[in-house]
């Protein structure tokens, strides 16, 4: 029969059956604070020995904590559940100490949140559970996680680190989609890759558009933000509002620049570098008129420039050198500006830049007549499109590079679905002395174009750190890696091989097409042309020809001539509409649109 007796603390000791021989002192201190605040909630269990003393078989930590509380009369005697014999005591000791486990993090979050709702403070919660106040704070930050995320955490489908990322998203549908994708693969997806999935339609505050507009101006326009509670990252959720603010501010600065500097025109570009902009506009670069220095100024500039090579200039001298250099570089004359303009753009850091001055095709005859540019340049510009293949206008090299990156991404995306084909190709690569199929080093193969609009390969390909281990004990890490089983090893090998797949970069003009056919590589499965990622970056003549191709019309028909006369923004919008899945069109035309890819991608 089970008996609970009040036993004098002085008569209690740790019985040899108790397995908790040396618990951490921090645990004892936390438990002592808990008992002093709340009382002894759970009895000790013990066995009365010869001489009348009681050996504690379960509750060794409580007994050690009570030793710190003997200044409190409440704990002079202690309730102890006594076992009838040593065999029963041994069973009790094994059961209580082996089955006891800490609360699951999901249950901690639930319990702490429930206590907070009842008005219990963080310090009191920490005492009650024997944890630190900082631990309670971390758990309470996650109290707002959606129930599906907590359920996945409780079922160990995701870890606590992955669960914490979900505070970024308040879209239940998107949360369920991401959980379905990552659930059951803890550790495979990094925090960054989960954030990318959850915030597919948002941009970071480090985006050059966000830096240029400013988060306060974006929010004033009605834009929403979400914040990563742990990393402190800020996301702008309403990209349409950001783009509207960006366009308005850009247009305002363009007009200010035109008025202040006297250019005939000032345009804006969303490109992040000046490279290729003049090609897109079919423009001729206009260089400034050279300046002149006096003999004394020229000698002084040469002296300062020589000393500058040794970092031997004070601030005043550096400013003087800049002033003299600016005079020597010259400036555009008012006559030049009457025929020319500049394009404003933001660099990768969000800083406003301007291109060289340019003369547009429409202004080139007048500029040549005025002696601003050479007449031969106008003729050359007129003939340039005819020199391109099939007479089509040329795409900029920057856009071509983006198209090739998309092509590589489509190839890797398809390869992920066919592990056996990847392994076959690896074996062939390793045993062959002719050609290479993989970039066998740890440098990432670039499959990310400058704009990711309309581009959606498997997110693990874009986050090259997803699933990577930074362990310093390689032997221990390798043993743990193998214990995860053959399926995990195969999954990792497939992903890493896919990331390195790049046959086209090694001159394999024959191997790449064979692989693409076997893997059924479909760039349109991961990329759709949009205004941002393609149309506005292509010359107007290219768009005119593309419209006729997709519509199945002749270039001299009324519809084609109407399209040609439209402004470029309207052309881009009309072409983008063709690629929208809800746009109604004849089956034959839909087939052309569905199959179309820029020839420059290949």
From TrEMBL:
Domain ParB-like N-terminal: from-to ranges: 5-98
Cellular component annotations (GO), alphabetically ordered: chromosome
Membrane-spanning parts: none
GO biological process: chromosome segregation
Pfam hit, one: ParB_N
Annotated protein name in UniProt: ParB family chromosome partitioning protein
